[in-house]
Design brief:
This protein is α/β, with parallel strands linked by helices. It folds into 2 domains: about 180 residues, Rossmann fold (3-Layer(aba) Sandwich); about 70 residues, no CATH class. The protein has 8 helices and 10 strands. The strands form 2 sheets. A 6-stranded mixed β-sheet has the order 6-7-8-3-9-10, sandwiched between helices. Strands 2-1-4-5 form a 4-stranded antiparallel β-sheet, with helices on one face. A hairpin with a 2-residue loop joins β9 and β10. α3 packs parallel to α5. The longest helix has 16 residues. The chain is globular and about 60 Å long. The two termini are about 30 Å apart. The structure holds adenosine-5'-diphosphate and magnesium ion. The site of adenosine-5'-diphosphate has 11 residues, from β2 and α1. The site of magnesium ion has 3 residues, from α1.
């Protein structure tokens, strides 16, 4: 029997009377690029927090490679190949781009106060920065970067914590909470091209997004969450035609035509 890389079963998270997640089931195959969409307050960030370990679900199960993630700290999940980014980019403003990546590199020796950060795997850090389109800015202080570059840096940092693609066959899951939030159209296209590139390297990607051009032309599959429940799950073309999704979320005049197409 084939087992999906990620299995989410009956996932629920209640905050007092608020059912942020109310019994969510889905599976994601290795290497798939899946968008989780839905209105504000639908439960997307809560879902990510339950997968990555910032929140403890009220009920349900999360299996990664057949192994339960629940009860494991975020760092432990990261060792198993599960990394995330946040809705508002979390970077170290006073450090350079390269130093931010070097700080979180997987496999580097634990950092001591006498260590030179600059000597930590500089080639691998440089490679990750280049992939994120930051090669020209590696020595810039993060506080001086445009927001789009900070968001790409955060993605590079999440990758830095994962097993090296290619060199190590262990599977990874990258959770991106609104990777294109706050980005201008051109920055958004760069970001989503990067997301596709990461998925093409075999990383399983699950992301949330409000900008429909970063969803329908990018994801292999779209999940729609409303009031803590999945109301649609399918190919972008199918979800875009779903009457309930059109009526309650996309708008009846929604068209995929004219949206950016980053899928190969
Ligand atoms: P989304 O990311 O889809 O906008 P969220 O997962 O952030 O949605 O929120 C889902 C619901 O859960 C909302 O009603 C929100 O107010 C509530 N919620 C989220 N986090 C908390 C929390 N830490 N405490 C109380 N309520 C929360
Ligand atoms: Mg959110």
């Amino acid at each position: 029997m084939r087992t999906s890389a990620l299995q989410v079963q009956g996932l629920a998270k209640h905050f007092g009377g608020v059912r942020a997640l109310d019994g969510v089931d889905f599976e994601v195959d290795a290497g798939q690029c899946v968008a989780l969409i839905g209105p504000n307050g639908a439960g997307k960030s809560t879902c990510f927090a339950c997968l990555a370990g910032q929140q403890v679900p009220t009920a349900g199960e999360v299996l990664w490679q057949g192994q339960s993630l629940l009860g494991k700290a975020p760092a432990e999940r990261q060792r198993l190949g599960v990394a995330r980014t946040f809705q508002v980019a979390q970077t170290f403003e006073a450090l350079t781009v390269l130093q931010n990546i070097q700080l979180v590199l997987r496999g580097a020796a634990p950092l001591a106060w006498w260590d030179r950060l600059d000597r930590r795997q500089p080639e691998r850090a440089m490679h990750l920065a280049t992939q994120a389109g930051l090669a020209m800015m590696v020595h810039h202080t993060v506080a001086d970067l445009p927001y789009g570059a900070k968001k790409r840096l955060e993605l590079a940092m999440a990758l830095a914590g994962l097993p090296e693609a290619g060199a190590d066959p262990s599977p990874s899951l990258l959770l991106l909470d609104e990777p294109a939030a706050g980005l201008a159209v051109a920055e958004r296209a760069d970001m989503m091209a990067l997301v596709r590139e990461v998925a093409a390297q075999g990383v399983t990607v699950l992301y949330t997004e409000h900008n429909m051009d970063a969803v329908f032309g990018v994801a292999d599959r779209v999940l729609v969450l409303m009031h803590g429940r999945l109301v649609a799950d399918g190919a972008p073309e199918a979800v875009a035609q779903d009457p309930q999704v059109r009526e309650r979320y996309l708008g009846l005049d929604f068209e995929m035509k004219g949206l950016l197409d980053a899928r190969g």
